[in-house]
Known about the structure:
Layout: E1 4-5, E2 12-13, H1 21-25, H2 29-51, H3 57-65, H4 72-75, E3 78-79, E4 82-83, H5 85-97, H6 102-128, H7 135-143, H8 148-152, H9 154-178, H10 184-197, H11 206-218, H12 228-238, H13 240-259, H14 274-293, H15 316-336, H16 340-363, H17 380-392, H18 411-437, H19 441-456, H20 483-486, H21 493-500, E5 509-511, E6 517-528, E7 543-552, E8 557-565, E9 569-575, E10 578-584, E11 587-596, E12 600-608, E13 616-627, E14 635-637, E15 651-653, H22 663-666
Antiparallel strand pairs: 1-2, 3-4, 5-6, 6-13, 7-12, 8-11, 8-13, 9-10, 9-12, 14-15
Helix pairs in contact: 2-6, 2-7, 2-18, 3-5, 6-7, 6-9, 7-17, 7-18, 9-10, 9-11, 10-13, 11-12, 11-16, 14-15, 14-16, 16-17
Amino acid sequence: MPDTVTGGGPARPAVRVPYPGWIRRLGDPVLAAGLLLVAAALALRVPVLRDAYFIEDDLLFVGDAYEHELTFDFLFRIHKGHLMPGAMALTWVESRLAAYDWLLVAAVTFLLQALVSLLVLRLLWSMFGRRPAILLPLAIYLICPLTIPAFSWWSAAINAVPLQLAMVLALSAQLRHARGAGDRHAWRALGWVIFGMAFSTKAVFLPLLLFALTTAYLRRESGRDDGWFTSLARELREHWSPWLAHLLLMAGYAALYLSRQDTAPGEGAATPDPGVAADLVARLLGGTAPAGAVGGPLSWGPRPLPSTGGMADPPTPLIAAAWAVLAALLLAGLIYRRRAGRAWVILAGYLLLADALPTVIARGTVTGLVGAETRYVADAVMVFAVCLALSLLPLRGEPDAYRRPVPAGIAPPLAAGLAAGAYLTLSVVSVQGFRDTLSGDRVRAYLGNARAALAAVPADAVIFSRPLPEGIVLPWNGERRLSHHLLAPLASPQLRARMRVPEPTSRGLVFDDAGRLVPVSVTAGFAQVPPPGKKCLAMVDGAVYWPEVVSFGGPDAVAGLAYTAGRPASVTVEMAGQSAQIELPPSAGVRLIHFPLPWPGRGMLLKVDEPSAGTCLKGFAAGTAVAAPGAAPAVTPAPAPRGTPAASPAPSVDLSPSSALSPSSALSPSVTPSRATARPAKPSPRPSRSPRPSPSR
């Protein structure tokens, strides 16, 4: 009978407004508590992102994005041991949208993490049903400090967060397939594995995780249990096609990875040092992982770079307590829960195969301290949360899940509540401790200065390349750490092109260690000045040959020539079978001109093209570009208009002659002059410089 409204008038049917099911479920206290946990965990991460900033590899990604298009070679090249076309595409898009925009990078990372957090809640709800006990494994995933360092570092987040997204979606799809929802869900799981492989090499192990969970638990809801090995055989017999596809996918990915090894020499897999490998695994699985699983590490050790967060340094009592807690959880599961041991076997196998083994192969030649890097086990946190839940809780609809009745009364929930409170307290303290080690101020100030300087200089400015400071990008990154690669994205397209190929100039600029543009100088690997009593360098038939000149070439190789000339002249520089003509404007006083020296080789011939021009060579130096000692920045704050806050000055450019570097400071007088000889050049190419593999990635 329809609901009616009574009154003085005729009865009318009451209006019923249907609500979607998900809105009605928001009133469920378990779901509401889960959503509050998600919100609280995300709020805990916001200050971490606020304090973090771009670190080493992040700069490399931005520089690469502006030097390459989205080609196969760019997307599928090895970067520090990672084959990750999806991550390369993501960094390319974000960098092209806005170079070095931390707000954009942090927002994308945060939104992805929020999505993963909600999906983990949905996965636990789907697996175990509506029971308050799912809040404990949910909290473990959401707040575990092991995930925070990877979340705060863009280069690590582009691997870790999408991998976790792929993991939770693949598990959700596989769960539905195991419950008989159709084979399409098995293929969806395969698709999510492919998605994960696009972002992280570790995703190659996801099929093994799915297979282990499916055979150990997900097909057990019917109550049939003939043993794990029997279940393995039955799964392969009855559902062979999706697993064959997974196997072929793993083999194809491995073949692709090996075929791309030559795209990054020295950065891929390597034979580990046994001592280093043992120390690494002991630190990673013996200390870092267990301490983090109970809310540690509480304390953080030295930082690989001044701008990075600290590495895990858990105290010995915490490690001992962590192992005791894990042993107690294992024992409790074995006593009460049927098949609880399988969950711990799966977790141990994942830690060994997906976390320890790849880390040893990629970093086992560097140092065992890599084992203190929590990001190498960040992906295992989700596996730990799921496996812990499987070892203690029955799956939804699973019959006869327990060996004996679970103790009744207030003791079990009270113990769970105390454990959860202790875990949350330790985790918050650990996260705050990590946040205290973050310091992006130096990189932020450096990039801010560089951005202002490049915005102020004219488009025809000549900027020579030099390495960024070691505290920002480490030396083993080779030529990828040079300013023409990493800072050019902040320049206009025209200036960006000129930074990559600087031209001879008497007003060259270079970035100093603070990110300001200052006049360029030369670190003189070779320098020559006139001998005592002479005003000019000695020449034979208008030429001079220096066999001692050695150039390693590259974008940061530069030479400086001091001269006087009564009228326009030019000199030709020959080295390693290459030559370049340098125009010399007339100058009655000593003038200094800098020019790139991109050819690797030994021995240089310098010829004055018109000896009758009265050109006098006052000195020469060859080396690499550096900031002139004591030189004032070429970009200086302009006076602020009346009423304008002094904290926001508009930059102006100083390209006056006084800002040019004096010859005496560019050419080292301490170098003993050599006698000029007239001999043909005999170049000797130097060996190529390959960057060393970085332990930071």
